[in-house]
Automatic annotation (TrEMBL):
The keyword Lyase applies. PROSITE patterns: DNA_PHOTOLYASES_1_1, DNA_PHOTOLYASES_1_2, PHR_CRY_ALPHA_BETA. The lineage of its organism: Bacteria, Pseudomonadati, Pseudomonadota, Gammaproteobacteria, Aeromonadales. This is Deoxyribodipyrimidine photo-lyase. It is an enzyme of class 4 (lyase).
Length: 478
């Protein structure tokens, strides 16, 4: 009998537990991907990511064909249709077992539950962990709960790594003669992702380049958006084109061993991979995070502003704060933004404009090529002060000094704000007086808020909350 591998956010043949286990059983293997364009829209995901998905599916089809495994791409509207679609397909193409890797979002988990209920009598369903080094729910406090603070989570994560290491699976053996490849072309609105070569080979090359050339200097350069100091692997990790285990293997290969503590070469990057896992484990433990709700329930009472003009100025990069505007225009034009800038613009939206983090989260999702719920929600709630282990509410980034610190010469600002090209470096973070003296004031908007006052207002908003409950137990009705 045949085994079916259902690909979702794990578009790779190497280190793919579901694919590996399905082929290891020695049966015929076939693969499926179910595209849900309506669900994609409901989740507000970006057209550039959809294009990247389409190209990565094509690359996956090629890789699978070389292994003698056919890939069928089915189309449904939303997840609701998936159980029936799958059942109908299985009637025509009987299989004895279904293999898949787990996903973390609540809609994906509900879909899987519905599939399980629909197909449980028909075939064996086996699910694996393919998106984290350690499975969701496997790292807990002594009382068996998920950590709500990053540092102890990271400590346990590292202890687990020391104890068991990580498991890196090879590409499975070919199952037969190479097949001819189907053409994959996803429908729906797309924006070209040509700047990001698709496929796991391209992802692996980028990983090798980063670990060979920039890993050891990452701690020093990662905060400067004008230089390429980070890996740019997020689009590949978000769709599962590469795996976190492969990232660990690359570190180990470069440094001969994995760094286990702060101060060791490569640790700062490893720590970011642990943040990624922290947010994914949190999403599974606290379903309310997938439902537009704050991690800290008391912060639901915050009185956010509904100033649509201010939100529009933020989205389009017209706030009058150069580092914020350069970052947003970069996002709008490329579909990607540097982590330091994500923190700055998220702080600006929530703490200077006092606009609900959910609006920023949704806008990011609609633009990012690497948009993924766990990291995006985690990042936004961290910046807004509503999340697990969030920035303290009184810590408000000053957009001008952030610009001065991390883009000292204004190179990044000038790249994205050509109207400031002539402004001297010393003036570029507050260019208005200089522009006025040159009679060029019309070129660039005046600041839409005064940072000092806005900061005090943000602190007052939080201070007005009733005593935050110590116990942040999940109050989710599951
Ligand atoms: C407001 C906000 C929104 C964000 N939205 C997303 C998102 O939708 N998708 C996304 O992948 N990341 C998101 N991040 C996290 C981070 O900004 C990006 O992962 C990073 O900028 C990607 O660049 P890189 O691949 O060069 O990262 P590197 O610095 O090279 O890090 C390697 C990998 O670690 C992971 N990672 C790094 N930093 C973080 C972090 N703070 N939280 C979680 N994972 C991390 C990513 O998978 C990244 O590719 C967000 C951060 C903030 C503050």
């Amino acid at each position: 009998m045949r085994h079916l591998v259902w690909f979702r956010a794990d578009l790779r043949v190497a280190d793919n537990p579901a694919l590996y286990e399905a082929t290891a059983a020695g049966c015929d293997v076939t693969a499926i991907y179910i595209d849900c364009v309506g669900q994609w829209q409901q989740h507000g995901r970006a057209p550039i990511q959809r294009d990247f998905l389409s190209h990565n599916l094509q690359a996956l089809a090629l890789q699978l064909a070389a292994l003698g495994i056919p890939l069928t791409v089915l189309s449904a509207d939303t997840f609701v249709e998936v159980p029936e679609q799958l059942a109908a397909w299985l009637e025509k193409h009987p299989c004895s077992a279904l293999y898949a890797n787990r996903e973390v979002g609540i809609d994906e988990r509900r879909r899987d539950k519905a599939v399980q209920q629909r197909l449980v009598d028909t075939l064996d369903i086996r699910v694996f962990n393919g998106d984290c080094v350690f499975n969701h729910g496997s790292l807990t406090t002594q009382s068996g709960d998920m950590y709500k603070v990053f540092t102890p989570f990271a400590k346990t994560w590292l202890a687990q790594l020391r104890a068991t290491g990580y498991r890196l699976l090879p590409v499975p053996d070919a199952q037969g003669q190479p097949l001819s490849v189907v053409e994959v072309e996803l429908e729906g609105t797309r924006v070209s992702s040509h700047a990001w070569p698709a496929g796991e080979r391209a992802g692996a090359e980028r990983l090798a380049l980063f670990s060979g050339q920039a890993l050891c200097d990452y701690g020093e350069y990662r905060d400067y958006p004008a230089i390429e100091g980070t890996s740019s692997l997020s689009p590949y990790l978000a769709l599962g084109v590469i795996s976190p285990n492969q990232c660990l293997a690359a570190i180990e290969q470069e440094l001969t061993q994995l760094p286990m503590s702060r101060g060791e070469a490569g640790f700062v990057w490893l720590n970011e991979l642990i943040w990624r896992e922290f947010y994914r484990h949190l999403l599974v433990a606290f379903p309310r995070l997938s439902m537009n709700r704050a991690f800290k329930p008391d912060t639901e009472a915050l009185q956010w502003s509904h100033d649509t003009a201010a939100f529009d100025a933020w989205c389009t990069g017209n706030t009058g704060y150069p580092i914020v505007d350069a970052a947003m225009r970069c996002l709008n034009q490329t579909g990607w933004m540097h982590n330091r800038l994500r923190m700055i613009v998220a702080s600006f939206l929530t703490k200077d404009l006092h606009i609900d983090w959910r609006q920023g989260e949704a806008y990011f999702m609609s633009r990012l090529i690497d948009g993924e719920l766990a990291a995006n929600n985690g990042g936004w709630q961290w910046a807004a002060g509503t999340g697990a282990d969030a920035a303290p509410y009184f810590r408000v980034f000053n957009p001008t000094t952030q610009g001065e610190r991390f883009d000292g010469n204004g190179d990044f600002i000038r790249r994205w704000l050509p109207e400031l090209a002539e402004v001297p470096a010393k003036k570029v973070h507050q260019p208005h007086d200089w522009l006025d003296t040159q009679q060029l004031g019309y070129l660039y908007p005046k600041p839409i808020v005064e940072h000092k006052r806005a900061r005090l207002h943000a602190i007052a908003m939080f201070a007005a909350l009733k005593d935050p409950p110590d116990d942040l137990k999940d109050q989710e009705a599951r």
